[in-house]
Amino acid sequence: MTTDWMAQIQDFNDKAVDTSTKEIEKTNGFAVDSTQAQKISVQDFIKSGEYLIDEVKKRACTGSPHFFDTTTMRYFSSRVSELAWKKGDDIFFITSEKDTGHIKHKGSTRAFTVRKCDKAGDIKTVGYGFQKEPTLAQARRTIKDIFEGKIQEDMKN
């Protein structure tokens, strides 16, 4: 005689996916079926961020040695967001800048820029361009859209 809980377990086992027959890869803490594009919520995407800025700074010593210099950061009144996202060997992160010099660019409001640091330490502006994101949330959405293939990495042109 089969009880209800035994039937539920059997039903669960029948519906379980055999991951050995599918290509599964781990990306930013999520199991992704590489045969289908996975879309996740913005909140889940933000949660998948990692604290990788120290790694970016270490890489930048060779590829972009002046990017994190105190004088460079001060000149642009730059701030670096704590969270970053890794895609392959590339690390995507967000900076914000505010022009405080005597010649005001972009109306001297704080704006956000999506950056990519490759394995060699070269840091490039990606997404829509320098100071093109009005909010941190929008910059995070841009990285998410790059990861999901909705936009290209270089939309500046």
Write up this protein.
The protein has 5 helices and 6 strands. The protein has 157 residues and is α+β, with helices and mostly antiparallel strands. It has a domain at 39-147. The chain has a 4-stranded antiparallel sheet with strand order 3-4-5-6, with helices on both faces. A two-stranded antiparallel sheet has the order 1-2. A hairpin with a 2-residue loop joins strand 1 (24-27) and strand 2 (30-33). The longest helix has 12 residues, at 4-15. It is globular and about 40 Å long. It starts with a helix and ends in a 10-residue tail after the last helix.
Characteristics:
four-stranded antiparallel sheet; 6 strands; 157 residues; 5 helices; 30% helix; two-stranded antiparallel sheet
Topology diagram in text:
Elements (H helix, E strand, L loop, with lengths): L3 H12 L8 E4 L2 E4 L8 H6 L5 H11 L6 H6 L3 E9 L2 E8 L13 E7 L5 E4 L9 H12 L10
Antiparallel strand pairs: 1-2, 3-4, 4-5, 5-6
